[in-house]
């Protein structure tokens, strides 16, 4: 599971060890009442290798991705980015989003910016 935690950290670009557990992220969360785990708990679960428990939680899908937690964090920990990374890890674990380069031409539209194509390939190929 240690590899999964490192993957979450890499995907999110966040250092969860900077969290000082002040709870400001949770206090500003508009989805607080709907979540099984709250933003500060997400961070703690990643730090303490409780990723399987977090990935199994329906609470990661209750996050609105409004990033209010990111704005309030005094240490720039970005709990919302961690949630997004955990969601992506769940999808990858379920083998639902592998995109092979040879599949791309069938998906292209003329109006689609090349940056979107490159971004999708980076996000969904592993």
UniProtKB/TrEMBL annotation:
One of its GO terms (cellular component) is plasma membrane. This is 4Fe-4S dicluster domain-containing protein. Gene3D superfamilies: Alpha-helical ferredoxin. It comes from Candidatus Avoscillospira stercorigallinarum. Residues 9-40 form the 4Fe-4S ferredoxin-type domain. GO terms for molecular function: iron-sulfur cluster binding; metal ion binding. InterPro entries: 4Fe4S_Fe-S-bd (IPR017896), 4Fe4S_Fe_S_CS (IPR017900), HdrC_iron-sulfur_subunit (IPR051460), Helical_ferredxn (IPR009051). Keywords: Iron, Iron-sulfur, Metal-binding. Pfam families: Fer4_8 (PF13183).
């Amino acid at each position: 599971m240690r590899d999964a935690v490192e993957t979450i950290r890499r995907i999110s670009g966040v250092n969860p060890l900077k969290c000082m557990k002040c709870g400001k992220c949770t206090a500003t969360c508009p989805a607080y009442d709907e979540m099984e785990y709250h933003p500060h708990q997400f961070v703690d679960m990643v730090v303490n290798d409780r990723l399987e428990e977090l990935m199994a939680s329906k609470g990661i899908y209750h996050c609105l991705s409004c990033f209010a937690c990111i704005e309030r964090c005094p240490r720039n920990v970005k709990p919302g980015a961690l949630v997004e990374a955990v969601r992506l890890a769940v999808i990858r674990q379920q083998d639902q989003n592998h995109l092979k380069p040879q599949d791309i031409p069938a998906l292209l539209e003329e109006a689609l910016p090349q940056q979107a194509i490159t971004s999708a390939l980076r996000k969904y190929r592993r």
